[in-house]
Specification:
mainly beta; Porin; 2 domains; ten-stranded antiparallel β-sheet; nine-stranded antiparallel β-sheet; 37 strands
Length: about 575
């Protein structure tokens, strides 16, 4: 199975450099000149190899000890440097890593069809098998990968009662020049995923499937996802489909490279780790990456992602700041009706955004506000965009926290928040306020697969209402969270104040269940208590936060707001 079709252009790499000189025509001294160096020869593509070459690559290694029953008794996954080279004279490939090396010549080729070549070499108890999927084997059409290829080298050392297996996966080829990696716009790549998962106590399994990688070159971000099927490495049994690989990363600003995180959710395993990759071809037409993951359940997964640009894939949103397509987000909120009885509560509304720049905020139970550029008004905080629009029962004010690098306080990528304030509607002119959070939520399975801990730092904003004086005030402060994925809990603190009142610090405590943050408690160091409903945002939970409400009876004050942090 090869990567899906994409857009390509035929370009020749390489250059020939010649140096020369001449002497004078007389009988005097003749100037000494160096012999010209040999021409520099490079392969223009992988479709026809015309020169020996050591290929750039991204690689990852899996090792496993497999008992006679075919069950895995030990496993590991790691990223390791690998050398993969082609020798024109002998038409052979050599792969080397971690003190191991093997050359695969035409005499050891077991098959070559459909763009896939398989080589096998046996030396006593050691059996080596190399599989490469590349245009140079039988030739691909112009819509198939021309500048990158897939390889995996399996070495099995048979012993008494068990075998030691290593599998090295790699994407190799002709990388894009740094200047050829775009720094504006975006691209979607149709991908193929290949790898090995080793759940302890059962059979190791190869997996393969298809998906996509989406790259926002302007913001230097990427996400990837794929659905794969698993089959037994020994039995060849089909264990079924439905396993997934998800990941995200950032692009280097000074190199053709990206790094990030990956989560493999298997049919009976879950693991979290890292990915690294680069672009291939003269115009970054192709992409390749390797990944390694380990899980608290003892499993590990290792593999590669291989992709082709494909302009027919529908766009998806990678950030909340620059939508690539229209989207409607759930918006959990903390809200209250202002009056002698604030009556605060939690609810879920929606925030809808369009690529044309329209935002519609719909709090639960309150009138919707559709906002366009002409509704903006001057505000007091440059990190918010303030709107005012006419509602059926009176003016509605909406303040949206700016997402992205333009925010000088907290540059959120995957989530944002804001406030809605206006009449409650239905002919009732009583004022209400709703603070809400929204964005690109993290899949619960990703959070379930994570281990260790993560720290988030950020901000808190809200509204305080004093029922004794029937007045309200803007509140802001700092927020910090710590999430322990091993014990499935989170903690933190909020520091809140208004222009005239310091409400103090509120300690945060809560738990995770099935990858979802549950309601947490807020306990004031000096006075007051409340609740918070946070959530994870981003492909890997890079951001964390949500609405909160606090009651301070001694000050006859109720606070509703949102806390948000980044880190992860």
């Amino acid at each position: 199975m090869h990567a899906s079709s994409g857009i390509r252009a035929a370009v020749t790499f390489g250059a020939i450099m010649a140096l020369g000189g001449c002497g004078d025509g007389g009988g005097g001294m003749v100037a000494s000149v160096s012999a010209p160096p040999p021409p520099v020869v490079s392969n223009a593509s992988l479709a026809s190899l015309t020169a020996s070459q050591s290929f750039s690559n991204n690689a990852a290694s899996a090792t496993a000890t497999i008992a006679a029953s075919a069950n895995v008794t030990a496993a590991s996954s790691t990223s390791q440097p690998l050398t993969f080279s082609y020798d024109l004279a002998s038409n052979s490939y050599t792969v080397s890593t971690q003190g191991r090396s093997q050359t695969f010549a035409p005499a050891s080729q077991a098959s070559a069809k459909g763009g896939i070549a398989v080589y096998a070499v046996t030396n006593g108890a050691t059996a080596d098998r190399l599989t490469i999927e590349t245009a140079s084997v039988t030739g691909y059409a112009a819509t198939s990968p021309q500048y990158s290829g897939l390889g995996y080298w399996q070495r099995t050392v048979s012993g008494s009662g068990s075998s030691d297996v290593s599998v090295d996966f790699f994407i190799y080829g002709l990388p894009s020049a740094i200047s050829a990696v775009p720094r504006t716009g975006s691209a979607a790549y149709a991908t193929s995923v290949y790898g090995l998962v080793s759940p302890l106590g059962t059979e190791a399994r190869f997996f393969q499937g298809t998906g996509r990688m989406d790259v926002d070159f302007a913001d230097a971000l990427l996400t990837t996802s794929a659905t794969v099927s698993e089959s037994g490495i020994v039995s060849q049994a089909n264990y079924g489909t439905g396993a997934t690989l998800t990941g995200s990363g950032t692009l280097s600003s000074s190199a053709n490279a990206f790094t990030g995180s990956a989560v493999y959710t298997g049919l009976n395993s879950a693991s979290h780790g890292t990915l690294a990759g680069q672009f291939y071809g003269p115009g970054a037409q192709e992409v390749g990456a390797s990944f390694t993951t380990t899980g608290a359940d003892g499993s590990s997964a290792t593999g590669v992602i291989w992709g082709n640009q494909n302009s027919t894939l529908p766009p998806i949103n990678l950030t909340v700041a620059n939508p690539a397509t229209n989207a409607t987000y759930n918006a959990p909120s903390a809200q209250m009706t202002l009056g002698q009885n604030a009556n605060p509560g939690f609810a879920t509304g929606t925030v809808a955004v369009t690529t044309a720049g329209t935002t519609t905020v719909t709090p639960a139970g309150y009138p919707a506000a559709t906002l366009v550029g002409s509704d903006t008004v001057a505000g007091t905080n440059a990190n918010f965009t303030d709107y005012s629009t006419a509602g059926a029962d009176g003016a509605i004010a909406v303040n949206l926290y700016k997402a992205g690098s333009g925010n000088t306080e907290l540059a959120l990528t995957y989530m944002s928040f804001g406030s809605w304030q206006g009449p409650t509607g239905a002919g009732n002119s009583a004022a209400a306020v709703s603070w809400f959070a929204y964005g690109l939520g993290t899949a619960p399975a990703v959070i379930q697969a994570r281990t260790g801990s993560a720290n988030y730092t950020g901000v808190a904003y809200g509204t305080a209402y004093n029922s004794a004086t029937n007045t309200s005030a803007a509140v802001n402060g700092n927020a910090s969270f710590a999430v322990n994925f091993d014990i499935q809990g989170y903690s933190g603190s909020l520091g809140l104040k208004s222009a005239t009142t310091n409400y103090g610090t509120f300690n945060v405590s809560g738990v995770l269940a099935s990858g979802v943050a549950q309601f947490g408690s807020l306990t004031g160091v000096t006075a007051g208590a409340g609740s918070i409903l946070p959530a994870f945002y981003g492909p890997n939970g890079q951001e964390f936060g949500g609405p909160f409400r606090i009651s301070i009876p001694t000050a006859t004050t109720t606070i509703v707001g949102v806390a948000a942090g980044r880190g992860g």
